[in-house]
Each structure stands twice: as structure tokens, then as C-alpha cells.
Amino acid sequence: MTINPMKMQEKRDKKDDKKMEKYEKQRELAAEEPVRKTKRSKAQDRKSYAFGACATVIFLLLLMLCIPYDSSSKTPPKEPNKANSSSTASEEKS
Question: What is the pTM of this model?
């Protein structure tokens, strides 16, 4: 019994052609069907909102820490109270 490489190659080609046709049909069917999105539950939405709020708070906190504190912008100290100044004045008189 002799092995004919040409016949074997033809068989392989036919199998490959069938496989390719099968894959093409699957692709066509997949393209025709609408893509279904998974529905999000309320719990997932709440978790995402909570995570977003926490991330925003942390971001704002870090942003505030990065802003330099300028102590010279404070208002100058006010003059001492009159009660204190009168007591110092009475001490000076005596």
C-alpha cells in the first residue's frame, strides 16, 4: 500500500476549509446578535458611589496637604485689651 501525499494534502485542505467555514458562520451569527450588557445591581451602584466619594475625599485631603501654608497672611495681633492696658498703666503710676 502506497501513501499518496497529494491525497493527504487534499484531505487536510478540505478539513481546513470546513473549519474556516464553521468559524465564519459563527462570526456572522455573533455579529447579528445584539451584545447584551450585564445589568448592574443597586448594591454594585452603591458600592461604586461609596468608593467614588472616598476617593474624592482622599484626593481633596492630599491636595490640601500639598498647598503650602502661608503664616504671614495672618492678620497682625491686635493691641492688648484695654483692661490689660489700664492695669499696666495703674502699675506705672504707682
Answer: 0.38
